## 1
Amino acid sequence: MRSGVISPSRRRLLAALGTVGFGGCLSLDDGGSGRSRLGEVSFANSANRPRTVDCRVEWNGEIVHDRRYELAADDSDGVDESRAVAPQTWPDEPGRFSVAARVRGHEWTRVDPGNWGYPDCFTVFGSIDGERNVLLLTSQDPTFCAGSSDA
């Protein structure tokens, strides 16, 4: 279980996400399980004003995480309040889930690991831009999932 605030530099974080954000998109083999583990869910505000982000995780048809995060304005001097990691309120075992997020008062953006062939481990990073859009990037890095067969 991970919680707290993430603190990598924005440049390093976005560079890494540029390479992993689309990893596995062409992989459609889920080994027949139709389930994935959900690792970390985190957010970063790149806007120059504070944003409120709603996050919802649905697990096997049940909402298991429904929280609001207050993110400070992006501050290029490395202030960490513009970033947050959701506390893990979902099970460690594989399941069918989706992650949805929105800037308060705007449309939900949703990701589902089924669109990537149910990888063993699935993590979500939400980036909030200046226009109040939430871009949900995904990774299949097994280091974020407890008990992952690749960890």
## 2
Amino acid sequence: MKRAGGFTLVEMLVVIVIIGILLSLLAVWITHTTEHGRYAATQARIRTLDAGCSDYRTDHGLYPPMTYVGSQNLHFYLGAARVVPVPAGGTVTRPPYVEFPRHWLQPGMSTSLPPPVSFVYDAWDRVIEYQSPGVNVPQGVDIRSLGRLPLDPTDDTSNSSPDY
């Protein structure tokens, strides 16, 4: 007796289970890759802000002061066009220390300065913290993101982190 062509129910179920396992592995990999990308983007953002603070200190002899709240100071002092005196007399206007892309700032806020002054956000849409003078970096400033899990200090990213 000849069997009719096609697949049995058991064969179909095995294929469906294998496809489900592969899809779940793919979902875990995508989640891990997304979080790793956010972490790397936040580290790059902190490095950029730290370099801007160092450039500001070179020009003014001090780090951006604490006039506003936290990272609003970074947006105000590093995001404004610089007016620098020249040796021949007069001044020259230079670009800001840091060009703030819109996704670094509060949604709907303008990048023009001054005002409005905005907080600077990390890749998880949490406010980046700024402290001058620094507690963790005594001769500099503290720039810190609370990371993906704000209550887990091992998840933080800062300019004083060992992997910075």
